[in-house]
Amino acid sequence: MRNLTMLTDLYELTMMYGYFKKGMHKKNAVFDMFFRRAVGESSYAVMAGLEQLIELIANLHFGEEDIRYLRSLELFDDEFLTYLKDFHFTGEVYAIPEGTIVFPGEPLVRVKAEIAQAQLLETALLNIINHQTLIATKASRIVCAAGGGNVMEFGLRRAQGPDAGLYGARAAIIGGCSSTSNVLATQYFGGKPAGTHAHSWIMSFESELEAFRAYAEVFPDTCMLLVDTYDVLGSGMPNAITVFKELREKGHEPIGIRIDSGDLAYLSKQARKMLDKAGFPNTIICASGDLDERLIIDLKLQGAQIDSWGVGTKLITSEDYPALGGVYKLSAMEEEDGALAPRIKLSENIWKITNPGYKKVVRIYSRLENKALADLIMLDEEKIDESQPLTIFSPTATWKTMTLTNYYIKDLMQPIFINGEQVYQSPSLLQIQEYAKKEMNTLWDEYKRFTNPHIYKVDLSQGLYDLKNRLIRSSRG
């Protein structure tokens, strides 16, 4: 397990030092991590990265080499550096489990701890959750575009570094990808890698047919041939069919063919006809080559005969929306009497005004359809009587109201650390993926649209709304 304690911006350490010098470092504070805007045109996001956040917090400490380096910066005195030698996390973390569908504005992670501890978590926490949630969301959109079809993550060589490739592959599986080409990711997180051969395999033999025969000889039961090195329909497909017939004569069935370039709609339709005519109706056609959800939708509308999709660059980099933009904001601070006093950040931009206090998030479901109706951000002590009608309202246009009946609620945030002790065990990656699929089924189709999706309701409870407006009025005099 890597120690990522020093994976931080300097200002986290300078603030910790300031709190220490002012005698404030042991005061409890509450921070919320949330994102303000949805990913691209999506209405939702898929929570991911919690397992790595747990590893960060469980291993939070400054080693001797870290202390020596910090001393060399000549920013901190010996008293503070001595304090860091015994530093570890003793606070509380609540978070929304991985695979959960989440929306702008609602806390994904809530940290309550001594302010020095809570402050230090900010940078690494955002780095981990922002990245994996972004990629899981992109993957979810691509899988939806494929109609639940087989989507393979192929992006390692285009990822922005080894960690982005490794944890991006993990997030893509959470988002619904059936597999990844990343061998290290499957070694770490489970599953089997997917992949066959590249164009260089074909080009290294005297002929395409010879290359196909050699590959089929080595992998007779998992033979998928890349047919676009020279001419898909003129040579690739005829040569592949020749090899497939030879395999069948030896008692093996081919898996399929892959097309990586050209007009994928036209080529796949022609390839399908050729395979069917040759007696291989069950042989699959895989497409790859700069795919994303928009191109997949277009190809399907054109009647492309594609059974599985290899998606690389535009998935692993979330090319159209390269950052989630999650933030980590102080929402409460311990006062002299030990009580938590709410804090609020104001802005001329209404969507940048934070929600104060010690909060939770609940999801409201219809009992009839078992579909999500709305989320409610509430003060932690507030309760909902499910036997009574519940009226919710837009926090920015309060005249927009909806009264709910025959509903049930679920607390989204789960305890992860209590008094510094880990109380939550992460499910396996495939269990998280299955949970994410079930979560998607609780969303109405209107929220899954790829263009102009319906905006999901994330409202404030009456108590939180009143507190927020009271603090705004107080801050404005």
What does this structure look like?
The chain is 37% helix and 20% strand. By secondary structure, the protein is α/β, with parallel strands linked by helices. It has two domains: 278 residues, nicotinate phosphoribosyltransferase (Alpha-Beta Barrel); 180 residues, TIM Barrel (Alpha-Beta Barrel). A seven-stranded antiparallel β-sheet has the order 13-12-1-5-3-19-20. Strands 7-6-11-10-9-8 form a six-stranded parallel β-sheet. A four-stranded mixed β-sheet has the order 18-14-15-21. α5 crosses α6, α5 packs parallel to α12 and α9 packs parallel to α10. The mean pLDDT is 96.
Secondary structure topology:
Layout: H1 10-21, E1 28-35, E2 45-46, H2 50-58, H3 64-72, H4 78-85, E3 92-95, E4 101-102, E5 109-114, H5 115-145, E6 150-153, H6 162-174, E7 179-180, H7 183-189, H8 199-203, H9 208-218, E8 224-226, H10 232-249, E9 256-259, H11 264-277, E10 284-288, H12 293-301, E11 308-311, H13 313-316, E12 326-334, E13 340-342, E14 359-366, E15 372-379, E16 390-393, E17 401-404, E18 407-411, E19 414-418, E20 421-422, H14 429-441, E21 458-460, H15 462-475
Parallel strand pairs: 6-7, 6-11, 8-9, 9-10, 10-11, 15-21
Antiparallel strand pairs: 1-5, 1-12, 2-4, 3-5, 3-19, 12-13, 14-15, 14-18, 16-17, 19-20
CATH architecture annotation of the largest domain: Alpha-Beta Barrel
Which fold name is given in CATH as the topology of the largest domain? Answer: nicotinate phosphoribosyltransferase
Q: How many β-strand stretches?
A: 21
Largest sheet: 7 strands, antiparallel
Shape, principal axes of CA atoms: globular
CA-atom Rg in angstroms? 26 Å
Structural class comes to: alpha/beta
